[in-house]
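User: Please predict the structure of the protein below. I'd like the answer in structure-token form so I can feed it into my own downstream comparison script.

Assistant: Understood. Taking the following sequence of 115 residues as input:
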Amino acid sequence: MEYDLELRTKEFSKSLLRFVRKTKISVTNENIVKQVLRSATSVGANYCEANGAVSKTDFRAKIFICKKEAKETLYWVELLKELVDSDNINELVRIESEAKQLMLIFSKIGTSLSN
């Protein structure tokens, strides 16, 4: 199955934006929401940069940044799951799943370039 990873990472960012738009911001979750927005939106931005890389080494470095940002997003999502209403947990679980999948995809891409 072929898919557009730039589009997929953008949709990932959009899903987080939609989730946050519906989330009540409080003293307890404000920092976590800001952090998860930064890391999640960074995945797609760094993938776009990777596609414009000037060398294989540059591409690989940017791919590993994508992996790192996806992993960081997982961390923040896990914390956020503790703070959201049960009504919104399913959406957050889907976001968490996509972050895991993206992390694995970028790990595989980066590892395949090492050989």
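That's the full token string. The CA atoms of residues 24 and 84 lie 9 Å apart.
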